[in-house]
Amino acid sequence: MYERAIPLGRLVATAAVASTLAQDQNLSSMIFGWLKLHERGECPHLDQEDRASNRRAIANGERVLTSWPTGRRDEPKLWIITEADRSATTLLWPSDY
């Protein structure tokens, strides 16, 4: 069992991410692990400054963003953002932002 630091709220994805996930089973399965880490406030792929920013955001009830390497040429990173009010967590490509 793991300790949840961030309630995820409703899980949503942009249309572009949803389309990719429908076609890429490998990426789909990786996302579940990334969501568990995100929920714990962990993201080893962020630099030290961004990890510190997320720790403050968790403590202060602000928006939390993690970034994950996809291994894809077209979209090398996937962002996971949980809103400050914890009502929703969105999966998006940086190009969707």
Contiguous helical run count: 3
Distance between the termini: 33 Å
Structural class: alpha+beta
What is the 3D form?
globular
- Mean pLDDT across all amino acids: 93
Biggest sheet layout: 4 strands, mixed
**Helical residue percent band:** 25-40%
Structure write-up:
With 97 residues, the protein is an alpha+beta fold. The chain has one domain (10-96). It has helices spanning 15-23, 25-39, 48-60; strands spanning 10-13, 64-69, 77-82, 88-92. The chain has a four-stranded mixed beta sheet with strand order 1-4-3-2. The longest helix is centred in the first third of the chain and has 15 residues, at 25-39. The protein is globular and about 35 Å long. 15% of the residues are buried. The mean pLDDT is 93.
Write the layout of secondary structure elements.
Elements: E1 10-13, H1 15-23, H2 25-39, H3 48-60, E2 64-69, E3 77-82, E4 88-92
